[in-house]
Design goal:
Layout (H helix, E strand, L loop, with lengths): L4 H14 L5 H19 L2 H7 L5 H15 L1 H18 L1
Length: 91
């Protein structure tokens, strides 16, 4: 019997799409969302004390993202708007 070619081609096509998860625009969107979220969390006192009190390690990275989000808020918002236009219209 011949193997079912349709199933194999669908599996190859599905695996081919999985390689697109780690694209540059996906990484930029993730970083922008992390910066915006950390900047928002910094304004909530209980969450700020819980998540942004450490300045080393993983929580230190969150702290640095919150500092970037609050100091460069105009640049981060422009990048978010530009990325939205890129993803919705150009991609």
């Amino acid at each position: 019997q011949k193997p079912n070619r349709g199933v194999v081609s669908r599996q190859r096509q599905h695996c081919g799409n999985m390689a697109n998860v780690y694209t540059l625009d996906g990484i930029v969107v993730f970083v922008l969302l992390a910066i915006c979220t950390c900047a928002y969390v910094k304004r909530i006192p209980r969450l700020r004390d819980l998540l942004l009190s450490e300045k080393k390690g993983f929580f230190g990275t969150l702290y640095k993202a919150s500092v970037i989000g609050t100091r460069l808020h105009w640049l981060v918002s422009l990048c978010c708007a530009g990325m939205a236009v890129y993803l919705l219209l150009l991609r």
